[in-house]
């Protein structure tokens, strides 16, 4: 059997009960909290892992996995190097999307909106609570830049380990948090015979409008 024919046979029928609008919280952040807590309780590895999609000014798109580190009514927060590819794209085009792929639960959540930096104080508060190695790693990596070998990173890591052995590690100036302020949040749940349930929350001023989408 070749790869193409074997891929044709890869399918799963979803056995969840149909999702109704009456099952949803009118506030999408509260609804996200319900589903996120379900994902955590299920034992999924890193339920806060999410695909971040960004694009530059010319519309060239890139995606990568990042970790959600905070969320509330203001938006969804992750941390990175501001000079990374994602950081450069956000500087050119401050709009992005997030996707939580909770495949084991036959659920996913897509969030789209504008991106803003969180305050330096908030970034520092998070940074100082990171593990020692993670704080050093933020100094070591010029994220997304070409390097000749992994040894470059290891050598720099050991140098910084000695430098900061007896003192606090400050937050690098080019590292911190971004918040995605959502304009829309879509909840998708798998259904029998590919009749999936999709509900879109779209921001209308200070309120949210819920619409069912065709699968």
Task: Explain this structure.
This protein is an alpha+beta fold. The chain contains six helices and nine strands. Strands 1, 2, 3, 4, 5, 6, 7, 8 and 9 form a nine-stranded antiparallel beta sheet that branches.
| Average pLDDT number | 95
Q: How is the main sheet built? A: 9 strands, antiparallel
Number of helices: 6
Contiguous uncertain segments of 5+ residues? none
Structural class: alpha+beta
Topology:
Elements: H1 3-8, H2 28-42, E1 49-55, E2 61-67, E3 70-72, E4 75-81, H3 85-92, E5 95-102, E6 107-117, H4 120-127, H5 132-140, H6 150-163, E7 175-189, E8 197-204, E9 207-213
Antiparallel strand pairs: 1-2, 1-5, 3-4, 4-7, 5-6, 6-7, 7-8, 8-9
Can you give keywords for this protein?
single chain, 215 residues, alpha+beta, 9-stranded antiparallel beta sheet, 9 strands, 34% strand, globular
Summarize the structure.
With 215 residues, this protein is α+β, with helices and mostly antiparallel strands. 28% of the residues lie in helices and 34% in strands. The relative contact order is 0.18.
């Amino acid at each position: 059997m070749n790869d193409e024919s074997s891929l044709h046979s890869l399918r799963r029928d979803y056995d969840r009960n149909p999702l109704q609008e009456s099952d949803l919280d009118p506030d999408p952040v509260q609804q996200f909290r319900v589903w996120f807590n379900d994902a955590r309780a299920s034992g999924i590895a890193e339920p806060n892992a999410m695909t971040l999609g960004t694009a530059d000014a010319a519309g060239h798109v890139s995606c990568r996995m990042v970790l959600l580190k905070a969320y509330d009514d203001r938006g969804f927060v992750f941390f990175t190097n501001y000079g990374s590819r994602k950081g450069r794209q956000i500087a050119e085009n401050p709009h992005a999307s997030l996707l939580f792929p909770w495949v084991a639960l036959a659920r996913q959540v897509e969030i789209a909106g504008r991106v803003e930096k969180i305050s330096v104080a908030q970034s520092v508060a998070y940074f100082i609570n990171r593990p020692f190695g993670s704080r050093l790693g933020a100094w070591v990596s010029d994220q997304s830049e070409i390097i000749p070998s992994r040894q470059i990173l290891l050598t720099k890591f050991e140098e910084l380990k000695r430098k900061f052995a007896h003192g606090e590690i400050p937050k690098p100036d080019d590292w911190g948090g971004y918040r995605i302020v959502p304009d829309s949040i879509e909840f998708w749940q798998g259904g029998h015979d590919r009749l999936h349930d999709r509900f879109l929350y779209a921001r209308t001023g200070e309120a949210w409008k819920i619409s069912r989408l065709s699968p």
